[in-house]
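Data's thin. Show one?
=====
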Amino acid sequence: MIALASVASSSLGVLPARAGLGLKPRYCREILETLPPVGFFEVHAENYMGDGGPPHRYLEQIRARYPLSVHGVGLSIGGDQPLDKAHLARLRRLIERYEPESFSEHLAWSTHDTVFLNDLLPVPYDGPTLRRVCEHIDEVQETLGRRMLLENPSTYIAFEQSDLSEIEFLSEIARRTGCGLLLDVNNVFVSATNLAYDATAYVDAFPVEHVGEIHLAGFAEDQDEVGDRLLIDAHGTPVTDIVWTLFEHALARTGPVPTLIEWDNDVPAFRVLMNEARKADHALAKERCRRRTVIETA
């Protein structure tokens, strides 16, 4: 287990409690020309593991002007085999190169033998999986020399062998490893709908003392094999009203925290993302005001 003191001392900065956006290549020139009022930008680690080229030239310029979050999608934290050492080494070089304020990954697995799968697959919530995930997080934090955030998944199935709730599983991971948590509010609503539980109750039970970042995104709607409603964490549409409402409910528990707008498919014009960021910033400002009012009237 990585010592909490060493993790804290290695932190290079803190993301501002504002709205951030996922950085896409098509936006880079516009961002550098206009310098929009964005709290931070987030990139997927695997898109920047090469040594050079236009992606790095743009990212270096944007990093010089904005806080940065790096979000991994390929470590396979929940996999039943050892972490890929070469992948982890590439990640370390990337983190050392850009010194981001935050690094996060998913509670999922995406590897089998030597094959990398283009998906984030679920894990059972049981003792053996808990120990394996904690060992992997310890290794990541020790390799990077910093605390990471672990994201709650979007789920479509539940495992019969699970003997812990997702909340219990995430809470115990944070307790054992000292990692932080990334609360993806859209994932909460998607999973709650698919598995028929109360999204608001989930947020009420979430260990918010560990939350270092929130994600918001849009979902797609489909039906399962028996015709029941099925939501897909698709990241290709605006954040829905019901997720905005759940976000405000989450902020009442977490307080203002860095909040990312994710939009990875059918990517729109940059102004569309800026509109989403303004909505998130409005909700963050509203929560700050509410908290000041509570303090002043106490």
About this structure: The first helix runs from residue 4 to 9. The chain has one domain: 4-297. The radius of gyration is 19 Å.
